[in-house]
Amino acid sequence: MPEPPAPPPAPPAEFTLVGVFEALAGALGDQPCLRWRDRCLSYAVMAERARRMASFLHDRGLGCRAERQALANHESGQDHLGLALYNGNEYLEAMLGASGARVAPFNVNYRYTGEELAYLLADAGARGLVYHASLAPVVAEVLPGLPAIELLVQVPDESGHPLLPGAVAYEEALAAGSPAGPPVESSPDDLYVLYTGGTTGMPKGVLWRQHDIFMAAMGGRRMVDWSELTSYEELVAQATAAPGAVLGLLPPLMHGAAQWAAFMVMTMGATIVLPDDTRRLDPADVWRTVERHRVNTVTVVGDAMARPLAEELGRHHYDTSSLLAIGNGGAPLTPAARQLLLGRLPNLIISDTAGSSEAGAQMQTAGGGADGVGTFTPGPGAVVVSEDLRQVLAPDHEGIGWLAQRGWVPLGYLGDAEKTARTFPVIDGVRHAVPGDRARHLGDGRIELLGRDSVTVNSGGEKIFVEEVERAIAGHPAVADVVVAGRPSERWGQEVVAVVQLAPGAQAEASDIVAHAAGHVARYKLPKEVVFVPLVQRSPSGKADYRWAREQALATVKG
To answer: What domains are there in the chain, each with its CATH number?
Structure first.
């Protein structure tokens, strides 16, 4: 008799974030998950604490109100919980706990003023907020205008601020929750909400299905070769086979790239290490942390983090023998910063990942040198589409288009059907994410990332990508930091202005800065003015604040 036909292969699993962490905790148990100061929390302990938070939220009436299939792409059927937290175990616990209760957590910028915070919490329709005690005064300021917020959970810190009226202390909330978790089951359709930074406009909440963001950016694909996990069993096998790497996480977890990095390394069975000071970048503290915990990889966001770290290595000796790589994402790393790092750590591997809140991790490059900065090898689904959003451009196309992503992409923007349709168009029958970055698909298959269109300067009919000009200026030895912006010009329509922070003790004239840049970019791209400032303002994650830069450029207009 002929052999019976083999059963069809099982379909790939759809993941949830809490399901991923529970699978890791079940396999890794007492292995350290997170180290910070005198704290060392194992995977099992953090999983229990997350379950307790989930139970607490569920017991307080927060959860899922409508299933995904009943909703439009810009709608949410879940209650939303804001996380106004500095880095610490509480961020990951609250994020996972919310997911376990089918509540959608979202990131809150802890530098926001009362007006900015009120806008964000209202836009998100928040029903609850977990916040550090030092932020209690600004939270108290906005609460009267936000009647939808019913639950406050306050995390103690060095500020000593007492509990706000009606707030629950974080550890008391955990103690009140069951270690078994709530009687609900999270769904791959449950939301992961990531608010954009708002450095070029008002923040918008990007809505992802949990399965989609896990596959796009949080460990569902192996960044080495972009191969995909297809089951929880495969996830566990990967985590338990890994040698137990140690990641030094520097960017704030309220930035999407840091959340993604944390989950990526956890899927590899690694330990996350935080520097003692999580409120600001202290380079000496970072290198002491690398020494103490034998850190293998450090994550940074652009020059704002990389340069101070490299400069500190020039001032003092640290044992960096455990450090193998620096992973950069979220902001460009200029050739000058790369060379500075490699001058101190010549065997270091520097990898760059390009992506966005609306597209996940799209492209990657790795290598020691400064060649090819801004040029990436695309991952699956990363493409360049035409100006009119009607076709995908071939790799040898000479023109500039939009960087786009297909495959695992977000549902849309919370509460904004129009912007959802505009940012996630259907091209050739396939839904794409087109966040607004300009790009060129090179003949060798790589993609050259030119920059966000919203901060492009149109001068005399020529489009100037500010990140290209920033890279050219950042190579000047006297420049510690630079942000480039445009301002109105009677002659050119717009003109380029460079806002420059000089290195300590360094001196340079505007003409020196322009002359240096002239060796790297065309004449029409050169700044018409250089504005020197004591400190270039950036977001806590290290991203450029282009609204602030434009204000500096406009403030110098004569007359």
So the answer is: 17-212 (3.40.50.980), 376-453 (2.30.38.10), 456-555 (3.30.300.30)
